[in-house]
Amino acid sequence: MEMNKERIGMEYWKKIIILLCSGWVSIWIYRSALSPVYPQISASLGGNVSDTALGSISSFYFLGYVIMQIPAGFLVDKIGKKKVLIPGFIFFALAAFIISQASTISMIYLGSFIAGIGCGSFYGSAYSLTSQNIPAEKKSFSTAIVNSGSAVGSGLGMILSSYLVVQLGLPWQIMMYISMAMTLVMLGAFSIVIRSNKDDVAFNQPKEKVEEKPKEAVSMKSLLSPAMLFTYILYFATCYAYYMTVTWLPNFLGTERGFQGAAIGFSSSLVAFASIPGALFFSRLADKYMDKKVRFIVILEILAAVMLLITVQSSTSTFLMIALIMYGFLGKLAVEPIIISWLGENAPQVGIGTTLGVFNFFGMMSSVIAPTLTGSISDATGSKVMGFYIAIVLLIAGSCLFLLSNLRKANSQL
């Protein structure tokens, strides 16, 4: 009776959704906390730090994050989610402490790189947990709820950083102390809530079925097939636009559009908060019209590119704010659950952690490039507008390639 109750009960998968959503909140508060206070960081280091050097703070984080993706995915499949997540978040807490004590830009780079390594444990673990524990008919919508944690964290990070540091004048290191506290809370939650790999399998499948299932290896050929490669390119473009925007939008609004104080964080956070209803709405539609996911993906990507174009072309703050809200509603966090859902239907079915690791590795490479490249463009031209144009071109090109790939696949099946 007790076993039957555990199998039928929905409580565990609901806890997983809340836990993973909270995990993204803690990660994204850290990720978004530093960009609004780049001037304060520069001042604390002597005041002569270039935009390229400041942008590299994010690039070092994402370098560690990208490096960790494939190893973390492999380890998730081999030793289990819990044994990957907990050490990863210990590294994350250590990194926040290192940054809070930094007296040089190199020390901040080191902390950022370690933070990336630590947070790199999360993606494959999180979406392996959702894949194995959430009912199939609820997966797209549940993934959108999990993803919304990144939007909440991003918005909170920008608002808190702008308010506490820019407006109240507190030391920028306070955001690192907040990140450390949240990371320690998440470590406790992971320890209590997540079951061991063995228990997780027992929850989802009868024991005899697990024993009968032959062990297989993930084929490199299937992971790098043309259809998968075009999906990786699309995700690269999607992430490039988002992480360029998240990293440099606060600075862009403050230095090129005249926003001041808490208004910078509030305006930047609109992208994050607007993405929550967008993600929930479009994931519901994608679940309802499952055969039209490619159309949803391509249309959302193109519209997001248009919103970024309006953002940099706007001559008034009203149009700029509307464009930012619409970019959030239509952009990465809205389209990502649909891409992940499409990937689950079309990617190799063996070794889901490894598959997700490779997918996120290719997508997140853009996050290493975008912050530093945009900072370099700003140093060379005095403006970050060209960085937005590059993101727009990548979104359109990636969408077209993804669409052509799927049209070719559809035609070959006729």
TrEMBL record:
Q: Where is the Major facilitator superfamily (MFS) profile domain?
A: 16-409
Q: Does the keyword Transmembrane helix apply?
A: yes
> Transmembrane ranges?
12-33, 53-72, 84-102, 108-129, 141-166, 172-194, 223-243, 263-282, 294-313, 319-343, 350-373, 385-404
Protein localization: Cell membrane
Q: What SUPFAM superfamilies does the record point to?
A: MFS general substrate transporter
PROSITE patterns on file: MFS (PS50850), SUGAR_TRANSPORT_2 (PS00217)
Per its UniProt record, what InterPro entries does this chain match?
A: MFS, MFS_dom, MFS_Efflux_Transporters, MFS_trans_sf, Sugar_transporter_CS
Question: Protein name, please?
Answer: MFS transporter
Q: What is the lineage of its organism?
A: Bacteria, Bacillati, Bacillota, Bacilli, Lactobacillales
